[in-house]
C-alpha cells in the first residue's frame, strides 16, 4: 500500500468530516502551516486569507451545501477553526493565477489494448505538498462512492467514482478571478455524478470563482477537457487521438487571454513532447505505456516528469508530487509517491 494515509469516510457530511479531521489532525495542521507561509510570502496574511475565503461561502452553500458541513466536521475533528479549513479549501482562489504545472493524459477505449478508458496526470507543485497528501474513500448516501487524492483537510480532489467517472485538473489562467464556487468543491460535485454529461453540467452550471481545465473521463468511453473561466467555458473531446493537455488554453475562445503561457513557458514544451509520444505510438496503449510517457525526462528538469530546479525561485521550484493513472472501467486508482520515474506505485480498487 501507499505511504499516503488512507481514510474511509462514511455517514452524514458532518460525521464524514469529523472522521477525516480526527484521523489526520497533524497533517492538516502541517498543510495549514504550509499555506500560511505561502500566502504570507505573497503578501496575504493568514487572517486576510480567512476573510477572503468567507466570501466564497454563499456560493458553496447554494451549489453543494454538504461541503460546508463536511468542512465544519473536519475542523471539529482536528480541533481547528472552521475558518482555517475553509481557507485551505479555497486556497487556489485566494492565491489566484499563481502558476503551477500539470500534464494530463487520457486514452479512449478504441486506443487501449483492453478496450478500457484511461485517465491520468502528473501533479506538479511545491515539494511540501508531498508530505500532506492523503487518499480518501468517501461514501455519501444516494451518490456514487469516490476515491480521491487530496491535501490534508481539503475535501475535493483528483480521482474517480464507482460509476466510472474520473476527473483530473490542469491549472490555467486568464488573469481574472471572481466570487463563485472554488475548484476543490467543483471536484466533489463532478464525482457525485453518474455520467459524462452530468459531470460536465457540474462545471458549466454554477458561478465559477476561477480558471482551469477539468479533464473528465468515463468508463462509458468518453474523455473531455472542460476549459473554463469565471465567465465562459469550452469543451474539447478527442475522437481519434489520445487526450493531451498541459497548462495553457487550447480553445480559441481563451487563447488571447491566457496568462500562464507567458509565466510558464514550459507548458508548450511538455504538450509537444506528450503529443509526440502519445500520437506516435503505433499499437494499442497499455498502462505501462502511460507510465512510460508520464515518466519522460525530455527538457529535464522542466519535463513531463518534473524535478526541482535549484535555479528557480523557491515559490517556483516545482516538482511532480505524484502521478495518477486510473482505469475507469476497472475503477482502479494507481498513484506514485513522488516522481513517477521512481516507480513507487500503489494501487487501489473502488468496489
Automatic annotation (TrEMBL):
Coiled coil: none annotated. This is Acyl-coenzyme A:6-aminopenicillanic acid acyl-transferase. One of its GO terms (molecular function) is transferase activity. InterPro entries: C45_proenzyme-like (IPR047794), Peptidase_C45 (IPR047801), Peptidase_C45_hydrolase (IPR005079). Keywords: Transferase. PANTHER family: BETA-ALANYL-DOPAMINE_CARCININE HYDROLASE, PEPTIDASE C45. Residues 116-340 form the Peptidase C45 hydrolase domain. It comes from the Bacteria. Pfam families: AAT (PF03417). Gene3D superfamilies: 1.10.10.2120, Penicillin V Acylase, Chain A. It comes from Parasutterella excrementihominis YIT 11859.
